[in-house]
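Exam revision sheet. Question 4 asks you to relate a sequence to its structure. Input first:
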Amino acid sequence: MVPGADKLAGCPATPSKPPVGNGLPDISLPCLGAGPDIRLADLRGPLVINVWAQWCGPCRDEAPYLATLAKSAKVTMLGIDYDDPRPELAVKFAADEGLTYPHVADQDKAIQKALKVGGPPLTAFVDSSGAIAYVHRGVLTSQNQLNQLVEDKLGITP
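Answer key, structure tokens:
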């Protein structure tokens, strides 16, 4: 386990589900904290997935909005530490920013093709059927913007 990973939320065990059309890719990624690997295709919403890296300046800018959304408890959240050679710094970043939800590591850019990741940050909104309702590419610029996306794409008022 990465030093300091015990400060992060553990990844939950997820029941196996069949992949859905326009859903998350059938890829398993290791938990950045404690817990089992997460198979993305098993996940259902309402879910907000944020693709980030500790070396990404805009990711640091939007982190407070994600931390605030995580406190609302109306949506499930998952972070994906993307293309990050320093997992120990990723753990420190997530802990320092109060990103209290589970995170997985994608050092090999396994999600790049499926989510068309040009680079972090990227935020995906997954509905209750497991389909990707919307992908926001680039930095979230305000709490209001993030809350509005959750409301518009997932039908939930944070």
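Marking note for examiners. Helices lie at 57-72, 87-96, 112-115, 143-154.
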